[in-house]
Amino acid sequence: MADELVHYEVRRGIATITLDSPHNRNALSTQLRAELTGHLRTAIADDGVRVLVLTHTGPVFCSGMDLKEAGGASADQQGVNEFPAILEQLWTSPKPVVARLGGPARAGGVGLVAACDIAIAANTATFAFSEVRIGVVPAVISVTVLPRLLPRAAHELFLTGEAFDATRAQAIGLINVAVPAEALDAEVSRYTDMLALGAPNALAATKRMLQEPRPTGLGEVFADMLELSARHFGGPEGQEGIAAFVAKRKPSWVPEQG
């Protein structure tokens, strides 16, 4: 039986999903894609999981599709048709997803980063949309990447395939923050701790709100947002949060320390 390429661990409501295929730079092989899909499904379905962290072993976060598998294969066999489902799992997860990058991301790996809600990288990490340099188009990953990037940067980097560093990635919106490698885990923990303070249903609704297209008329927008606000203000989480604030205690959804 083949060794597991993606590991799954839950501690204090944080599900950590770790790509562990360093021999091919955590490329999106058939096995890795299948295991990643399964672990994401498990984390999303588990009521005890509050936040997901997508991370890696080895020096590379993810190098994109496994080109050794893709050589001579049809589009179906290359996994192109199943990769969107992984990006959609990350993008639509009702629980916040944090990407932790200790090293480079390329092509499909950048798509994974963009699909996460928050991305934190070591300042030594690099990125590239390398597709055009091997004669393919960064089409699938554009669905998650383009909403993040400044338009001028997207044109430049998609068309040239040039590698860029974490400082540039932060400046153009691909990642949230770049930190020294030795501070990476502490920064990831800082974000997951903050996210765990949010009420689960409120976080899920906020994610949906952030992703939904807005109507063009302000009146319709305000009406929709007033209804959303009132529903959660008067709901169980809203009332528990208000009661906790008044009583100067933590609300029921905040994980116990330890």
From TrEMBL:
<dbReference type="InterPro" id="IPR014748">
    <property type="entry name" value="Enoyl-CoA_hydra_C"/>
</dbReference>
<dbReference type="GO" id="GO:0004300">
    <property type="term" value="F:enoyl-CoA hydratase activity"/>
</dbReference>
<dbReference type="InterPro" id="IPR029045">
    <property type="entry name" value="ClpP/crotonase-like_dom_sf"/>
</dbReference>
<protein>
    <submittedName>
        <fullName>Enoyl-CoA hydratase</fullName>
        <ecNumber>4.2.1.17</ecNumber>
    </submittedName>
</protein>
<comment type="similarity">
    <text>Belongs to the enoyl-CoA hydratase/isomerase family.</text>
</comment>
<dbReference type="InterPro" id="IPR051683">
    <property type="entry name" value="Enoyl-CoA_Hydratase/Isomerase"/>
</dbReference>
<dbReference type="InterPro" id="IPR001753">
    <property type="entry name" value="Enoyl-CoA_hydra/iso"/>
</dbReference>
<keyword id="KW-0456">Lyase</keyword>
<dbReference type="Pfam" id="PF00378">
    <property type="entry name" value="ECH_1"/>
</dbReference>
